[in-house]
Amino acid sequence: xxxxxxxxxxxxxxxxxxxxxxxxxxxxxxxxxxxxxxxxxxxxxxxxxxxxxxxxxxxxxxxxxxxxxxxxxxxxxxxxxxxxxxxxxxxxxxxxxxxxxxxxxxxxxxxxxxxxxxxxxxxxxxxxxxxxxxxxxxxxxxxxxxxxxxxxxxxxxxxxxxxxxxxxxxxxxxxxxxxxxxxxxxxxxxxxxxxxxxxxxxxxxxxxxxxxxx
Length: 214
What we know:
Elements: E1 3-6, H1 10-25, E2 30-32, E3 39-43, H2 47-57, E4 67-68, H3 84-93, E5 98-103, E6 118-122, H4 127-136, E7 139-143, H5 155-162, E8 168-171, E9 182-185, E10 192-195, H6 201-208
Parallel strand pairs: 1-8, 2-8, 4-6, 5-9
Antiparallel strand pairs: 2-3, 3-7, 4-7, 5-6, 9-10
């Protein structure tokens, strides 16, 4: 049986965050608000929990799960190296609607799906998400919807689709900017935009000093 916590009320917010953190550590799934859309999340290092996340969404391993982090410094332990372009983009747009695809650190014992040695990282600009991430560490988080349906912009929409497959729903109210993050691939010599979203092409070009590939 899942539980919904109203994170707009201080008492319920604190209880919800504590319960959600315990659920994540126990291998459960939680729904959390972000600055783009609601996400369904699990401990990034718990392969069984990540498998449950994919199953709840009706999604295959061919669509690996992105990872959300609670601070810039967390990235250094998750990737092979942080190139200059990545640091420039992180400083300009994190926390915010930019996801970066980088070669993952080979020592990491996780299974996010068929990533081919890469990881999709983002730091969201939402206080509830950041508080949870800073408590439990990196989380595998995908949009809170079942495959083929629109991403949830409220906790209720997420619950209608995901039901009791999720242990805890953190309700932060409707997401104010329901635009997916921009995804930039930094695994090659030239940055490449895999998906245009919250961060525009012109903004990326200004930071990078050159236009990224598309």
